[in-house]
Amino acid sequence: MAQIDNNTTIIMIRDFYRNIIYKAKYNLTEDECERAILDACRFFGMPAPVLIKNLTNEPQGSTCFSNRDPNSFYDDVLCYNLKELKSLGVDGYVGFTAVFTHECAHRLFQNRLLPGPDFGQWEHELVADYFMGVRAALQDMDITKVTDGLAQTMGSGTHPTGTLRREYILYGKQEGYMHRIKNIDASAEDYFQLFLEYRLRHLQELHAAEMRVY
Ligand SMILES: [Zn+2]
After folding, report:
1. Do 120 and 158 belong to one domain?
2. 0.85 cut: is pTM over it?
3. Ligand 1 centroid to residue 164 C-alpha, Å
C-alpha cells in the first residue's frame, strides 16, 4: 500500500476543511469551480486553460482571464474570486459557469480587433456577455441572478454600463432560444456575426451609454 507522508495528510485535511467552508459560504467547492470552468471551455470547444487560480483570499484578486500570446489558447490563465462573484449574484454552479462562459469568450476573441473605442474594449465585454446568454439558452441554465447582478454594475472605461450588459445577455439568450427551437446548429462565428449585426442595429444606444461614461 502506498505510504502517505505527513505533509500530504496535512494538505488533504486543509483542502477538506477549506471545501466545507467554501461550500457553506459560496455553495461551491474548488472541484466544482474547476468543473464549471472546464464545462465553459467545452462549450466553445477549446482546451482547458494552462492554469486555474483561486484568488478568493487575495485582497486584490479578481475574476479574470489573462494570457501572454494572444494567438494561443495554451498559455491562458483563468482566475476566480468567489467573494467578488458572490457580490455579483453567483451562488452556485450555474452562475459560476455562466461567468466563465464570459471569460472563455475573452479567450476566444483574444486576438480579435473589435469595432468601437479603445480597440473595442466595451465590445469585448459585450460579446462575452452575449455568449453567456447564448449558452444559457442552449443549455437551459437559469442565469437570472448573475444577469441581475451584472445589471447593477456601473460602467467604466473598461466595462460597459450594467443596463447595456443586461441587454446583450438577453439578446444572446434570444438567439440561443431561436436556434434551439428551430434546431439549427450554429458555430461561435455564426453567433458572433449576429452579435455584430445587433450592435449595428443598436449603435445609438451604445454611443449614448459611452458618452455618459467616457
Ligand atoms: Zn470581461
Report:
1. yes
2. yes
3. 14
